[in-house]
Design goal:
There is one protein chain. The chain has about 400 residues and is α+β, with helices and mostly antiparallel strands. It is about 35% helix and about 25% strand. The chain has three domains: about 200 residues, no CATH class; about 80 residues, no CATH class; about 80 residues, no CATH class. A hairpin with a 7-residue loop joins strand 5 and strand 6. Helix 10 crosses helix 11. The longest helix has 18 residues.
Amino acid sequence: MDVQVLDGGRDVTGGYKVDVSRGERVGRVSSEWFNRPDDERFLSLDDLFASVKGRAERSRTRTVESAAIRVEASRDNPERLVLVLPGTDAPVAPTHWSFGQLASLVGAPAAYLRQLPAPLAGINLQYGLTNHRAEQIKTLETEDGRTELRAVTGPDYGRIYDHELVSAVRRIAGNGTGDTRWKVPGVLDWSTGIYNPQVDITRDTTTLYASDRVFLFLVDDLNPIEAGRLPDGSPDLYFRGFYAWNSEVGAKTLGIASFYLRAVCQNRNLWGVEDFQEITIRHSKYAASRFAHEAAPALSRFAESSPAPFIDGIRAAREQIVARSDEDRQDFLRKRGFSKAETGRIVETVLAEEGRPPESVFDFVQGITAVARSKPQQDARLVMEGKAKVLLEKTA
């Protein structure tokens, strides 16, 4: 099938009519959008890179003996604990995150220690460090007006710095503002069903974030892809997207997720998602090597790949008729692990949305994902979405 941008799908405003009732809804980007304060939001990949790269340049790591660490009350604020690491007399201030890591490392309950007066919490923590059987820990210290202890991990922790991930993304996405095909996404207008890819990048619309956790989401939404037709004959349009995340302090794995989607709304929910793929890398001893040999090349492959396999898979699913009667529909779904009640809901959903009962594999996949979106429990929703994904993959 030829892959082309169809002007027939373009609205007079430059946007695209999309059908977000199909596919999955993914809320990961929206969760980041809701929880990030302004000082964690960036308007370009250049700005994001400069921030995390500068932080890395002001940082250093050390492997130290845990028993040699001294815990003291701060001279400036006796209600706050500081640490004195071996080989230096200058205290370092643990962040909320690193204090929790340190407490966990020695088997102490961080929440309880935070409720104690600083001198008493220090005594407990000092005892744990002195008797820590692992003996060695790796620190990440950053100079930012004062020396902060940002992370405490085991000695074999394989750190991938945030700037390494951002750098890999910049190689395919430039500044992330439209100088390449990859950019911060536009916005869906719910009143018209039109997705507008051309939206000013502001603190409120950006999808580039950094704190102890870096997260970025970019799309290729100026080049929509047709993968079949909607019931009214208009093109069913998708575009490509990916998001990536990392934490150099041990709060998260490194990961990259790629997918096709139909729209992004104002609060950054992803709608009409298909073909969701994910790679994760734990920060183990060889994490940096795995990132260089697995994750970064996978991101480049996705960015440069043709959507033809995806389109062919959708076409095959549309063309493969698996049910022509109510009995066929019941048998098809029940044999794939759906309950009688779920089977009824799936068939009714397709009938309501398409104006006819499901016949093709694609019809059933759309019905399953639509019913999955209505489930309040995340685990149940993911199980059902997983069944839909398997069904589509077997067709492809």
